[in-house]
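Dear colleague,

As promised, here are the two records you asked about, laid out in our usual form so they can be pasted straight into your sheet.

NAME FIELD: protein one
SEQUENCE, THEN STRUCTURE:
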Amino acid sequence: MAAKQPPPLMKKHSQTDLVSRLKTRKILGVGGEDDDGEVHRSKISQVLGNEMKFAVREPLGLRVWQLVSAVLFSGIAIMALTFPDQLYDAVFDGVQVTSKTPIRLYGGALLSISLIMWNALYTAEKVIIRWTLLTEACYFSVQFLVVTATLAETGLVSLGILLLLASRLLFVAISVYYYYQVGRKPKKV
């Protein structure tokens, strides 16, 4: 008796077989909602997680404030490096500059901070944005304290100094506001 040959194996195409695809996805645990209500399209996205939950929900006006800060820091830095006399005269009305070197060093430091501000403008990372906002707030606070101490020592009060002090307080408030807004935990939807 001749051995009976088994029927030829038919290759099943799971790409076209809808039931097979659904069973495979169910076994892998993808396609359905997880505990957080997220629907994963693949096992890889399920294991790695959804990158959208790490994205920063930017408060309204944050990027505008970052742009204004970067332009402000760059402008004052360039002015301090190129025209130290005029910058000093604009702030301390009528007082003669004894040395240009400290003002130019100030301009160099501001230019370095402005480079950080320009780079932070193009990032979406929450930590970097928060650090630059904290840097701004600290800078404006220190500048406010130094100008106030100088004002107390010299006794010179001018419109330029008062505007500088008022603007620094405003800039500290804006930077701290955005710092806390970026750091807030997003609400679950």
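NAME FIELD: protein two
SEQUENCE, THEN STRUCTURE:
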Amino acid sequence: MAAPLELSCWGGGWGLPSVHSESLVVMAYAKFSGAPLKVNVIDKTWRGSRGDVPILTTEDNIVSQPAKILNFLRKQKYNADCELSAKQGADTLAYIALLEEKLLPAVLHTFWVENDNYFTVTKPWFASRIPFPLSLILPGRMSRGALNRILLTRGEPPLYHVNEVEAKIYRDAKECLNLLSNRLGTSQFFFGDTPSTLDAYVFGFLAPLYKVHFPKVHLQEHLKQLSNLCRLCDDILNSYFRHGPVAFSSMNRNQ
């Protein structure tokens, strides 16, 4: 019998199995590849000090970061890309790099830096799911981490401050969404009728932006104008997550 695969991650809301993009990437890939994950969502029993999830735990391994987790699953013969050509594999890597450079900063800004969104939606949601006194500390730490990540990728001299890069962040994100929409076209998934790694990444990055109810919605409004990307998110939710995330548990390992 294969060793159990347990994924520690943030939980769901707004019809999503997780509101956390990187957790969603792994959960979607597991669905596409048939990996039998047991999902342990962070709750009041959590004893971690950081929000560094998702984390995949097996009998012999602890793996973090989506790319490393997906590579681990592929080595365990759970491969959602086995039917892709070499060119499609190269395109997958190029589009994932584009997502991380052009779209992720805007997603992070929407959740963690935009004040109205952070104080009315993001902070209360995350704080309600972690134990006191960590609930007073961790959301702010995650917000600062998101800001640092944005500045690391987009804060090129002389644009060192987030206010100076905000316009560029959202301009780049909208261009990225337009490119994704054009690439998807009328296809069910990015490479035909079967979902792959790229679909998992696009779903993970877009679904929270699409579904979470924010007071400031400028990027969300642009996404909702791209009906094929919204349809992709809805189709994945309806086809793969109608009955829950993967195999669900509210009890979490100590991290």
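A couple of things worth noting about protein two: Residues 247-255 have pLDDT under 50 and may be disordered. Residues 106 and 166 are 8 Å apart (CA to CA).

Best,
R.
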